[in-house]
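Troubleshooting log. The previous structure file for this entry was overwritten by mistake, so regenerating from the original sequence record. Sequence copied from the archived sheet and checked twice against the printout by T.R.
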Amino acid sequence: MSSDPRRSPLGFGRTLAYASGQWVEAIANNSLSVFLLFYLTGACGLPGALAGAMQLPAPLVPADPTVVPALPSGGGGLYSTIADYARFAQMLLSEGRLGGRRILSAEAVKLMTTNRLPASILAKDFATGLQRIGPGRGYGFNGAVIFDPEAAQMSVGPGTYQWDGASGVWFWIDRKNNLFFVGMIQRLLQDSMPRLQEISQAFVAKALPSGAILPH
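Regenerated output below.
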């Protein structure tokens, strides 16, 4: 990856997202597809995450979900439901627990959701998709971290972990305010799209009680 993320041909974060699939295969000693099949539908209890389990209209599916790609991506490719996504978000909000079961260690969740970028990178203030990396906005493991909402000018609690997807999906986990949000629309990412994540965060902030932990 380029030392200057703005000049990376893959874009910031995408290299890690794709490489993470290879890391999972090495650690699990199995293919990413098989690992996800048993782990997501078993330990996490996400039945909709089974590729091909849902009959989706052809216009919504860019590829045959029953065909396993030659190089499965660690950064995307599953077909699932908003209920499944909500369970995943709840698990992260609960520091790795879901339905009374430990899915991830609390330490692993902390590693994922803590900014890992030095001040020298944050000072560059650049965009990656609809996300920005800059003052108050860092990057953990495969997700943005809003560690200083006031500096980032965002209506969320400190430590909020978030990301979005090219197919009209966005989410955030605000542990300080004990909430998560999952948004889904049927529209592919375009430069002209409104900042739906920031818009929905502003609406949620207004709906929170007066004791909510938000920037002034």
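Residues 14-28 form the longest helix (15 residues). Archived copy saved in two places this time.
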